[in-house]
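Weekly structure sync, notes
Attendees: PL (lead), two postdocs, one rotation student
Agenda item 3: pending single-chain targets
PL asked that the sequence for the first pending target be pasted directly into the notes so everyone works from the same version. It is reproduced below exactly as submitted, 144 residues in total.
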Amino acid sequence: MGSWSMDLKKYAKAKEVEIKEVRKSYAFALYSSIVRKTPVDTGRARGNWQVTVGSPASGKVEEKRKSPKPKSQMPDPQGDESIFITNNLEYIEKLEYGGYPNPPKNGSGKTVGGYSKQAPNGMIGVTLANNENIFNAAVRSVKK
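Predicted structure, written out during the meeting:
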């Protein structure tokens, strides 16, 4: 009869590191997708997406961005801490759900039907509709 042995602590530690990397990759993929889908006028809305661990960001960032921050700037979650992607700009809900004047105040502009022309379906909901694919890609990226 054959036998085998395995150091379960070593295996658990390896899986813990793998899970942590999947969580970070997944959060980064969600964040990146949301940022890329956020309309760009001045870059202020894109610059205000904040990723935090443990609790959501409470303030605004006076940063203007055209693209997501690199993955290397993502916070590292420890254990099972929650990861939050937050934007506290006063008009971010209108970008996501609509609600701009219809017709636009100036007769034409950056909105149509009360929604941003650049993101008529929002940013977060569109990203989360693709959640399973984003998660699976994060898992594959760590297993390489």
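Discussion points:
- The first strand starts at residue 50 and ends at 53.
- The longest helix spans residues 8-37.
Action: rotation student to compare against the earlier draft before next sync.
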